[in-house]
Amino acid sequence: MTAGFFEAPRAAEFALRNVRVPATLAPGAVAPATQDGHLDVDIAIASGRIADIVPAGTIDVARGPDLRRSVVWPTFADVHTHLDKGHIWPRAANPDGTFFGALTTVMADRQANWNAADIEARFDFALRCAYAHGVSAVRTHLDSFSPQAEISWPVFAKLRDRWEGRIALQASSILAMDPFATGEGDRLADLVARHGGQLGCVTRLAGEDHVGVPANFDDYMTRVFELAEARGLDLDLHVDESGDPEARTMIRIARMAAKRKFKGAILMGHCCSLAVQPDEAIEATLAACAEARIDVVSLPMCNMYLQGREGGRTPRWRGVTLLHEMKARGMRVAVAGDNVRDPFYAYGDHDMLETFVQAVRILQLDHPMGDWPQAATTTPADIMKLPATGRIARGNPADLIVMRARSHSELLSRRQSDRVVLRDGMAIDTTLPDYRELDAIVGMK
Ligand SMILES: [Zn+2]
Question: How many angstroms separate the alpha carbon of residue 173 from the centre of ligand 1?
Answer without folding.
Answer: 11
